[in-house]
Design goal:
By secondary structure, the protein is mostly helical. The protein has a single domain, classed as 434 Repressor (Amino-terminal Domain), CATH 1.10.260. Helix content is 64%, strand content 0%. The longest helix has 25 residues. The relative contact order is 0.16.
Length: 86
């Protein structure tokens, strides 16, 4: 996806959303981890981020589901740490 003035290609809003989720889930080295979570190759993710391709809607859906699963795992871990109610 290129910008309208002939400048460099920009990632699509979908790719930016996927990147935001990946960074929140895995930090700065998120691409391989998230790619595995959503069933894509890290190379495909890099194409999306470079604006070479637009990710399909299912990729963003899978990224959101992966984030929800991670939130649930974290919540379970937190729940296990709470002291019993007095």
């Amino acid at each position: 996806m290129s910008n309208h003035n002939g400048g460099p290609k920009l990632p699509s809003p979908e790719a930016e959303a996927i990147a935001t989720l990946g960074q929140a889930m895995y930090g700065t080295r998120w691409q391989s981890e998230l790619a595995a979570d959503i069933g894509e190759s890290p190379r495909t993710l890099r194409f999306w981020l470079a604006g070479e391709r637009v990710p399909p809607a299912i990729a963003l859906k899978r990224a959101r589901l992966a984030a929800q699963r991670q939130v649930a795992r974290i919540q379970r871990a937190l729940d296990q740490q709470e002291p019993p109610a007095a």
